[in-house]
Amino acid sequence: MVINGDSLGFALSSRLERTFLELACKCDAVICCRVTPLQKADVVDLVKRNKKAVTLAVGDGANDVSMIKTAHIGVGISGQEGMQAVLSSDYSIGQFKYLERLLLVHGRWSYLRMCKFLRYFFYKNFAFTLTHFWFAFFCGYSAQSIFDEMSIAAYNLVFTSLPVLAMGVLDQDVDDEYSIKFPQLYLPGQFNRFFNMRIFIYSVLHGIFSSLVIFFVPFGAFSSEMAANGKDVGDLGVMEFTTFTALIIVVSGQMALDTSYWTAINHAFLWGSLAIYFVLCFVIYEALPSSFLSKRGGSLSQGVVLRSMQTPHFWFSILLVCTVLLLPVVLNRFLRLDFRPSFSDRLRCKRKMERHTPKEEVQHRPVIIRRSSTRRSQRDSLRSSYAFSYTQGFGDLILNGMLFN
């Protein structure tokens, strides 16, 4: 559809705007020419109000500012018409050709990373929070926490923050070359297939199930067991340390399984967070004096780390929790890759095969130069370009030889 500014003014009236929108949606493209800046913004606002779609506006001049501000996402192109569009936009590019990389590479990566970040964020916090809820049934609803104060404060701040930050910044399913080469990878983002209500409910249910396993496996291991000397195998402090350790390991393992693109930063943040957790536990509960722990008023006492690790129930609980929660995820990934791989999964496998396949030696064949059967003079073979002015009498400018001076 091609429509000029005068006709667009009638089409955007309250009586005809819905008809114009329905007709425009049936066309492959709509070209609005000779329109005012306000009409540009009205067209974007019409689609924004009536269609469940994310609008994007691209402009390079001051007359595009209102359109850029009206759209969900505004892209400004810095050019000869000034920087007004760039200053009013969300993203700025140097040339229009960079829009392809902005959308197909960086835009798709950003959407994928944000979806993974949200899924993991909901999962790890539901698994952490609901563990307190299950413990309330066995502590007489006395508001006693199953975790130590230090563990509660450092869970989201230290132990699980850096890995998800690295995934939200660096993760990618395929590289930039394949993202541009296969634009159909952009389609799942348009239909919001990576994070929707179904995936949100799955993340919540996954977190609930993980909290059940993380709490009840150590609780069952330490609740009714007795050592050879007649004493209990573990007290509340041992159970708390075992439960929180299982939580940290499972959440970190889930983070590792969700990461598609590994870098040195991902390895350092993920495994470094686990190392920091155990180092802090040994320093606080083994190296510091008991007087410091008594002043803190926590439920964990000095020596709880070594006492927990000396019991087989600790290692059995950690192993059983990891097996129940992580093994099904691993099996699901393998089965999905074998029977129902996505398009990005197939591209990743293709890229890995290309990297591991040795490059064949290129056979140097003689280059055949095709020539025309007719003879051409040397002057005709020279390539020339001409710049024409739109003033009258430009023929005299060519004929008088001024262009060749």
Which terms summarize this structure?
405 residues, mainly alpha, Rossmann fold, Calcium-transporting ATPase, transmembrane domain, two-stranded parallel sheet, 61% helix, 4% strand, elongated
Could you outline the blueprint of secondary structure elements for this entry?
Layout: E1 2-4, H1 5-11, H2 17-25, E2 31-33, H3 37-50, E3 56-59, H4 65-70, E4 73-77, H5 84-87, E5 91-93, H6 99-136, H7 149-159, H8 161-170, H9 176-181, H10 187-190, H11 197-223, H12 236-258, H13 264-287, H14 290-296, H15 304-309, H16 312-339, H17 343-356, H18 378-381, H19 394-399
Parallel strand pairs: 1-2, 3-4, 4-5
Helix pairs in contact: 6-8, 6-11, 6-12, 8-13, 11-12, 11-16, 12-13, 12-16
Protein name: P-type ATPase C-terminal domain-containing protein
Organism: Pristionchus mayeri
GO molecular function: ATP binding; ATP hydrolysis activity; ATPase-coupled intramembrane lipid transporter activity; metal ion binding
Give an overview of the whole structure.
- This protein has 405 residues and is mainly alpha-helical.
- It contains 19 helices and five strands.
- The protein has a three-stranded parallel β-sheet. A two-stranded parallel ribbon has the order 1-2.
- Helix 11 packs antiparallel against helix 16 and helix 12 packs antiparallel against helix 13 (264-287).
- Mean pLDDT is 83; it is low at 361-365 and 372-395.
- Its main location: membrane.
- Pfam families: PhoLip_ATPase_C.
- It comes from Pristionchus mayeri.
